[in-house]
What does this fold into?
Amino acid sequence: MFIRGLCLLAGFLFANFACAAERDAVSYVNPLIGTQKSAIGYGGTMPFVTPPFGMTNWTPQTRQNKISVTSYNYDDTTISGFIGTHQPAIWMGDYGYVTLMPQTGELRTSPEDRKLPYWHDRETTRPDYYGVFLDTAHGNNIHAEMTATERCAMLRFHFPKSGVARVLVEASRPGVRGYAAVNVQAHEITGYNPHRMDAHLGPYELPNFKGYFVIQFRQAPTEAKTYGMEDSTARKSLGAYAEFRAGETVDVRVGTSFLSVDQARSNLEHEMPEWNFEAVRQRLQTVWDEKLSRMQVSGATDQEKTRLYTALYHALLYPRIFSEDGHYYSAFDDQVHAGESYTAYSIWDTFRAENSLLTLLAPERIDGMISALLQNYKEGGWMPKWPNPSYTNIMIGTHADSLVAEAVRKGFHGFDRELAWQAVYKDAMTPPDGDTTRRWLDREEHTPYEARGGLTYYKQLGFIPTDKTDEASSRTLEDSYDDWCVAQVAKATGREADYRFFLHRSLNDRHLYNPELGLMNGKTSDGRWAPIGGPRDTSGNRSIAGWTEGDAWAYTWAPLHDQAGLMQLIGGAEAYDAKLDLHFSGGHNVHQNEPSHHYGYLYDFGGQPWKTQAKVREIAAAEYGYDAGGLDGDDDCGQMSAWLLFTAMGFYPVNPASGEFMIGSPMYRNMTLKLDTGKILQIEAENNSPKNVYIQSATLNDKPLDLPIITWEQIQAGAKLHFVMGPQPSHWASNWRPNLIPTK
It folds into this structure.
């Protein structure tokens, strides 16, 4: 009783801590992981206060965010605001954002002038709460606190007892014609920000796009004014401020919307009807705890639980909800529609494992997420590859085909399957405008939607030539996988002839295998082998080699659907595994980028699963840490985190649309997933330890399991997966080989 009393007291006094015996899943999350550049890499994450899939994320702002620069970086020593941001990844831009900043003294509007020092030991970060003490010029502190809902935030600023207390609202930056207005009687500042940092990457102007906001103060301002609005050339940032009595605690509610100021106000009324900071925070904590606690782990240290639950927090941030009160603004036709919508799909990254994780842990979202892609198809003509919130033409392939095929394969029915077929068929058969006159360079500005750049040649030659289309070699291999996905949708919708056609065309990856090199190799339009090239080539000519963020080693095993065919090309299982050995020993596996993510699991295909077991443990230990610098490479909307979570459980979706998961080496003694059906997936690893990484034997529901595979159906039935682990390799599951895709 005494210990429980201490826990209750600690929970009351310190929002960031809980007693070990009473800790919930939320308390393990460290939102700072991935926010610092370190020896292993930089995750590009931010300490977001937001619910899962929240429309607007809230974070302290330590620098001016832009493409390739996030709002928060752990190594910065000052804060210039608290921003409601929609930037989904470090190398994407923000849009429709709004920033608030408490200050004392004279009015200072620029980020450089208004920034205040802070220290991490006076900073509290949780998914449901952020708090920090900011040092003012006179040595007094402003204590800032923040919590949030799906589209809104509540902030609380505790001002020092001397000097003016002011809350600054930056509506938009110099060069952006935003707007702000004040209503002192209503205690409100309203406005909008039309800025889209990625606007130059898409094909459309969007005159109706705006990020609207309503900011309400609980306390009556003594004064409220706009600033910068009189400068017609917009050389200054635009915004407003409200001033209060010295020493006051100022409560602020912020509603955001992409529909209107009135909708932003309605979002506030619906999501934050009362002025009760602790109640809002508690609701957000409950939402996160319900999601996070679906995963339970035994045999892990608190540090390891922090790494796992933070990864799950990161994986549940995207795609973000983009609809409000049954309506959404579409950045594909610049109109408002009825329905549910999502955006921020980093599909080139997330189709590999993040989407598969969501089918397990957020299945209630999948129908809406697929429907949103199909709505984008109706409104803009294509499913997007990286909506932010419109087309951006970033990355290659049409991997929305994989998301659709995976949803179909896993039995999701809450979307229009005929419309889905039309969308994937267009991806596979219709070249983009100007396909033979453009190279489709990465981030080429003001281009039509790229879709499958080079598809004209792919249909004619069976590959995309490096002398005609940029990143052609990677495109050929990834389009082959997408063809396999289209074939699965054709089969599921009763189109047998289309199924056979696309299944056969999915073997185009084999056209790029160069037997002299023993690697995939791009081709020119006359059928000759292109220079092998890649980022490590001294010539630096990636366009000639045709690779995307990788090289021939990174892409040789890229056909997720055709490992059996690749094995045959290389010369059989023994040669396949030997080539993988060279891949890893030669330093070619770059886990910080997604094309390498499935490579550790490929020894399962070649009959040496013990190498997979050792390799994935090795990668997890090397690439994932426990502190702010603990992510090797951009988290990419949860994909890096999803890899760790699957690997910890002991399996991974090498071909995500197949419904099969390749078995690795479970990292902990016991892990469970609570499924939405009420069933429990239980993974037991008897004798598990950092040294006992090798599977000696396995059972599934108490029956021997001799394949390195577990299926979607087995998981959904509530599987009990039991492994006996040991310190030495065994021959468990070494007799299994994948089946070849028929060539006719």
Observations:
- DSSP finds 20 helices and 32 strands in the chain.
